[in-house]
Amino acid sequence: xxxxxxxxxxxxxxxxxxxxxxxxxxxxxxxxxxxxxxxxxxxxxxxxxxxxxxxxxxxxxxxxxxxxxxxxxxxxxxxxxxxxxxxxxxxxxxxxxxxxxxxxxxxxxxxxxxxxxxxxxxxxxxxxxxxxxxxxxxxxxxxxxxxxxxx
Length: 151
Description:
The protein is an all-alpha fold. The protein is built from six helices and no strands.
């Protein structure tokens, strides 16, 4: 069986991701019933950006189109993702095979996108993220293979 320490580190990372996304979902709900266009304008002004230039204008236009329903939908999606990450973390901490399958699968899903990012915009960060993700997948696959041999 791979190091339970490695699996617990992965569990901690997944729990952290879940908590960060849960905080983001809460932040989205805090924006309900607010004038997001005005808020976006205040942020742009605070950053001393020209609201007529390309990217601030895109930001302002996007903020103008956000409705309370859309904020609820985004918060619900973020909450679902956070719950999935937290359940995965708990399962990994308890060394459950289903959590290992989930971790291996969810990690493997990102690999093609990380490879495309590395090809299109090579950077040290892209290399590190790909390596980290491949390591997570490798640890989970190794754990699953070890579990299959034992059981």
